[in-house]
Amino acid sequence: MTFLELTEGPLWYAASAIFVVGVLWRLAGIVRLGGPRDLSVPRASATAGAIKGIFLHMVPHGGFFSRTKFHFFAGYLFHLGLFVLVLFAAPHVLFIEERLLGFGWPALPRWGFILVAEATFAGLILLWLRRLTDPVMRQLSDGDDLAGTVLTFVALLTGCLALQESHDSLRALHMLSVEVLMVYFPFSRLMHAFTFAFSRAYTGASYGRRGVVP
Amino acid sequence: MTFVHSIVRALRLAALLLAISFAAMTTLTGGPGLGAPALAQTGVETPMEEPSPGSGKVPGRSIGNASDAEIWRAVRHGLQGNVSLPDKQAGLLVQSEGEEWRSIRNGPVTKFGGWLLLGMVGVAALYFALRGRIPIKDGRSGIRVPRFTQTQRVVHWFTASLYVLLGLSGLIMLYGKHVLIPLFGPEVFGAIASAAMQGHNLFGPLFAFAIVALFFVFLEHNRFRWADVKWWLSLGGFVGGHPKCGFYNGGEKVWYWMAVALGLTIAVSGLLLDFPFILAAPQKLQIAHLVHNIAGVAIIAGGVGHIYLGTVGMDGALEAMTRGDVDANWAKEHHDLWYQETIAAQQTARQTVAQGAAAEVTT
Ligand code: HEM
Ligand code: HEM
Ligand code: HEM
Question: Cβ–Cβ of A133/B322 closer than 8 Å?
C-alpha cells in the first residue's frame, strides 16, 4: 500500500469515524446537561430569543465595534475563507463528489480559489498574532489554542503546497494533515465551530424568556 | 535599407518560415529517415572533403548537403520571423537572451548569493563565538518602558512570518538542486520544488501588503540624524564605547530602509512574474526575475544580521517586539537619548499632574 493509499483509505475512514462519533458525543453531552428548571411564566418566546442570540451577535453591538474591529475583520476573513475553501475549492468539490456524496456542485474558478486561500492565510496569521500581542489574550491562551491553530495552519499549508496537483506525496501529506486535524477536533476548542450555536442560543433563550433582546 | 538588403532579408525570412514548417512537419510525420543511422555513423567513407563548419556545407550527398549557417546563426541569436498566429512571439524560434539569463542566474547570482549568505551566517556565528550574547550590563531593573504598539508588533510579525515562508521557498528554488538533490534524490526534490513554488506564489502577494504596511508603521523615528553618522563612525560601539543613540541606532535605520527598498523591489518584480501578461516580453520577464533573485538574496542576507541581534545576539531585545516593552536598563544602555526623552516626558507629565493638584489645593 502506498502512502497515498494509506491516507486515502484506512486513515481516512478512521479519522472520519473519530471525528463524527467524537463530535456527536460531545454535543450529546452538552445537550444532556440541560438547563436549570425555570418555573417563572415566560414574558416572551425563548425560541425567538435563541434565534436572535445566534444571529444578532454575528456583528458587534453598541460601542464594541471600535474595540473589536481588528478581531472582527480578521475573524471573518479567516472563517469565511476557510468555509469557502473547504466547500468550494475545485479539488475539494471533486473529493466530495467522488468519495463522500456521489454528487458535487459548481466549484470556484482557479483565481477565486487562490484569492480565497490568500485571505484565509492572512486571517489566520493575523488572528494568531493578535493572540500573541494582546496581554489579556496571552493570559487566556493555552496549549489547546496553540495546537488547534498549528494543526489548522498545517492543513492549510499542505493544501497550498499541493496546488500543482501533480505529486502523490504532496497530496497524501495534505490528506494526513487534514486527518490529524479531524482527530484532534472533537477533543479541543475547535469544537466551537459547532458549540457556538449552543452557547449563543442558550444565552439568547434565557434573555428572550425575560422579554429582553439579547 | 538598400534593395539588396531587403532581398536578403526576405530570403532569410522565407528560409526561416521554411525551417519552421519543416520542423513542424518532421515532428508531425516522425521526421525523414530518423530511424536510419546518420551517414557519419555508417562508417562509409565519403570521398567529399570535410566541410568547415562555417562554410554552410554539411556532410552527406543525396540527403541535402547545404545548410545556411548564417540563417541558423541568426535564429540562434533571436531572429524574429513572421507568423500568422495572433501571438507574434511564436515567430521566435530561439529566445537567445534566455541563455544569458540562465547563465547569470545559475552562475554569478547563485554563486555570489551563496557566498553572501554563508558569509553573513559565518560573521554572526563568529561574533557570537567571540563576544557571546550582549548582556544588559547593569542587570534588569524590573521597570518596563513601552516601546512598540500592538499595531507595530502585528505588522512586524506578519511581515516576518511571510518573509520566512517566502525566503525558505525561494532558497529551495534557487539552491535546491545543489543542496537537496544530493541529499534526497531527484524524485523527492521534484515534490519539494513543486511545493516550494506553489507556496511562494501563494504567499508572495501577501508580502506586498505587509511591506507597505511596514513602511508606514515604522517610518516614525527612522529618519537619519547626525547621531547616526557618529554611530556608524564608531562602528556601532566597536570603537570607543557605546555611542549616543535615539529610538533607533544607525544600524537599525539602515535595516529599515534596506528592508523597505528591497522589499518593494521584490514585491513589484515578484508580482510582475506572477502576472506575466503585464510585461508580456520574455526579455523583460527575465530581467524581472534576476532583479527579484538578487533583491531576494540581499534581503535574506540582511535579515540574518537583524534576526541574529533580535534573538540570540542581544539580551532584552526580543521582548520589545513580543511584549511591546523593554527593561529600563536595556533602554538606557542601547538607546540612551530615547530613554532620557521618555523619562523626561514622564517626569514632566508627573510634574504637570502634581502642579495641577497643588493648584487645586491652594484655590
Ligand atoms: C482545513 C482546511 C482543508 C481541508 C479540510 C481540506 C481537505 C482536503 C481533502 C479531503 C482533499 C482530498 C485529497 C485527496 O483527494 O486525496 C483535499 C485536496 C486538495 N486540497 Fe485541501 N483541504 C483544506 C485546505 C486546503 C487549502 C487551504 C488549499 C489550498 C490553498 C487546499 C488545496 C487542495 C488541493 C490542491 C487538493 C488536491 C491535491 C491533489 O489532488 O493532488 N486545501 N483537501
Ligand atoms: C524573522 C525574524 C525576525 C525577528 C526575530 C525580528 C526581531 C526584531 C526585534 C527584536 C526588533 C526590535 C528592535 C528594537 O527594539 O529596536 C525588530 C525591529 C524591527 N524589525 Fe524585525 N525581526 C524579524 C524579521 C523582520 C523582517 C523580515 C523585517 C522586514 C522585512 C523586519 C523589520 C523590522 C523593523 C523595520 C524593525 C524596527 C526597527 C528598525 O527600524 O530597524 N524584521 N525586529
Ligand atoms: C511580493 C512578494 C513576492 C512575490 C510576488 C514573489 C514571486 C516570485 C516568483 C514568481 C518567483 C519565480 C519562481 C520561479 O522561478 O518559478 C520568485 C522567485 C524567488 N523569490 Fe520571490 N516573491 C516574493 C517575495 C520574496 C521574498 C520576500 C523573498 C526573500 C525573502 C523571495 C525570494 C525569492 C528567491 C530567492 C527566488 C528565486 C527562485 C529561483 O530563481 O529559482 N521572494 N518569487
Answer: yes
The minimum CA-CA distance between B198 and chain A, rounded to whole Å, is: 6
Q: What phi and psi, each to the nearest 5 degrees, are found at residue B240?
A: 70, 40
pLDDT value for B361 = 66
The beta-carbon contacts of B342-348 under 8 Å, at least 24 apart in sequence, are B342/B145
A90 Cα: distance to centroid of ligand 3 (angstroms) = 26
Nearest CA to ligand 3 atom 3: B204
CA of A167 to the centre of ligand 1 (A): 13
Measured CA angle at B253 (ends B249, B160), to 5 deg:
110
The residues spanned by each domain of chain A are 3-32+66-209
C-alpha grid cell, residue B343: 523619562
- The interface pTM score, or ipTM, of the predicted complex is 0.91
Q: What is the DSSP string of B20-62?
A: HHHHHHHHHH--TTSSSPPHHHHTPPP-SPPPPGGGSB-S-ST
Round to the nearest angstrom and report the end-to-end CA distance of chain B.
99
CATH number of A3-32+66-209: 1.20.950.20
Nearest Cα to Cα of residue B170 among B148, B195, B191, B147: B195
Taking contacts as CB-CB distances below 8 angstroms, the residues of chain B near A70 are: 154
**CATH class entry, domain B146-354:** mainly alpha
Neighboring chain B residues of A164 at a CB cutoff of 8 Å: 194, 197-198
The ligand with the least distance to the CA atom of A155 is 1
Instruction: Give the closest residue to A148 by CA, choosing from A99, A111, A175, A183.
Output: A183
Contacts of A85 (CB under 8 A, 6+ apart): A92, A113, A116, A117, A120, A156, A159
Q: Where are the domains of chain B?
A: 146-354
Render pLDDT for B208-222 as a digit per residue (tens, 0 to 9): 999 999 999 999 988
pTM score over 0.90: no
